[in-house]
């Protein structure tokens, strides 16, 4: 496993991380989740990404139980807040009240004294950015979080957080967590350069496009699959994208990689990316994904990928 710094911070994370979205406490049982997390750590993964909203707190509890016998300093554990966790009008958003109360609940569920990273899970238009920045700064000073970040914020929103942090001499966000994969490259024109300019790392989710870049949707959504059960893939599961998967899979096979390994290596081709957060429902998937760490794609392979994808947003914007 290779490791990268999170932006210009001193924190290092494994190039392949493990995430708990839509799995732990949901489609994956507690015992199987523990096996997956153990296998991930044994193979060098040190970053585990959670959020309070994942299975309404159960993901945090399951991860906490899985790592309770591991040395805490060996792990990088993150959680997030924003989405409503109850009917309480204040149990949502990025107000000081919700931040201070949410972090305590997350720490208790996970069974840890601190979070390595704490993410604002979306931008909150109802709360002044200054209030959020200063609350996060207080949590850093209290030792309850070590770094804080944004998730699915646009470039202008990130700029506002940086500006307010500088104004109040507060800890600025160190990391952004956006969606990024071969089929969704929206961060390349603005968000990626903005984060790079301010020394923020990028820990990206959905690097396999919710499974579309594993090849399992080449013939459409199988019965019982996530693509059939949820709306998360409705924008990606197009004829055009489905047609790209076998071409990419053939290219991957020509260099002795699986499609998922090629997709992960492609994400990691960018030095701005700190890691790719993967979901795993089996130990086998973990074993396959970690192989992508350290894979360097030759320029001719990258050129062929670009020809298949034909979706470079920076080229389109010129």
**How does the overall form come out from the CA principal axes?**
globular
Output the CATH class name: Alpha Beta
Q: Give the averaged pLDDT, no decimals.
A: 93
CATH architecture: Alpha-Beta Barrel
The portion of residues forming beta strands comes to: 5-15%
Question: Helix and strand string, N-terminal first?
Answer: EEEHEHEHEHEHEHEHHHEHHH
CATH superfamily, by name, is NADP-dependent oxidoreductase domain
The order of strands across the largest sheet is: 3-4-5-6-7-8-9-10
Number of helices: 12
| Total discrete domains | 1
Helical content band = 25-40%
Rg computed from alpha carbons, rounded to a whole number of angstroms: 19 Å
Structure summary, number of beta strands: 10
Largest β sheet strand count, sense and barrel closure: 8 strands, parallel, barrel
End-to-end span in angstroms?
37 Å
Say what the CATH topology is. TIM Barrel
Overview of the structural elements:
This protein has helices at 30-42, 58-67, 96-110, 129-142, 155-167, 191-197, 226-229, 239-254, 259-267, 283-290, 299-309, 313-317, and strands at residues 3-5, 12-14, 16-19, 47-49, 76-81, 115-120, 145-151, 175-177, 201-205, 273-278. The protein is an alpha/beta fold and 318 residues long. The strands form 2 sheets. The protein has an 8-stranded parallel beta barrel, surrounded by 4 helices. A two-stranded antiparallel ribbon has the order 1-2. The chain is globular.
């Amino acid at each position: 496993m290779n490791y990268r710094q999170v932006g210009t911070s001193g924190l290092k994370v494994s190039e392949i991380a493990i995430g708990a979205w839509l799995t732990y406490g949901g489609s994956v049982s507690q015992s199987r989740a523990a096996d997956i997390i153990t296998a991930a750590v044994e193979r060098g993964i040190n970053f585990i990404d959670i959020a309070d909203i994942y299975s309404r707190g159960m993901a945090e509890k399951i991860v906490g139980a899985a790592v309770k016998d591991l040395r805490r300093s060996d792990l990088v554990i993150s959680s997030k807040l924003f989405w409503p966790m109850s009917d309480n009008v204040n149990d949502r958003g990025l107000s000081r009240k919700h931040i201070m109360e949410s972090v305590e609940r997350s720490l208790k569920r996970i069974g840890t004294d601190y979070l390595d990273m704490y993410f604002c899970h979306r931008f909150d238009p109802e709360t002044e950015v200054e209030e959020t920045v200063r609350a996060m700064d207080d949590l850093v000073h209290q030792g309850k979080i070590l770094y804080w970040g944004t998730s699915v914020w646009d470039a202008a929103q990130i700029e506002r957080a940086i500006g307010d942090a500088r104004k109040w001499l507060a800890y600025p966000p160190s990391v952004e967590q956006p969606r990024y994969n071969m089929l969704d490259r929206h961060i390349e024109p603005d968000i990626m350069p903005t984060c790079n300019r301010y020394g923020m790392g990028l820990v990206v989710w959905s690097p396999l496009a919710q499974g579309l870049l594993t090849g399992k949707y080449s013939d459409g959504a199988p019965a019982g699959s996530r693509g059939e059960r949820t709306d998360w893939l409705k924008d990606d599961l197009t004829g055009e994208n489905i047609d790209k998967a076998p071409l990419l899979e053939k290219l991957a096979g020509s260099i002795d990689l699986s499609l998922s390994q090629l997709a992960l290596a492609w994400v990691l081709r960018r030095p701005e990316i700190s890691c790719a957060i993967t979901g795993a429902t089996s130990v086998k998937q973990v074993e396959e994904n970690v192989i992508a760490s350290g894979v360097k794609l030759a320029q001719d392979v990258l050129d062929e990928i670009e020809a298949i994808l034909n979706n470079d947003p920076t080229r389109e914007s010129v």
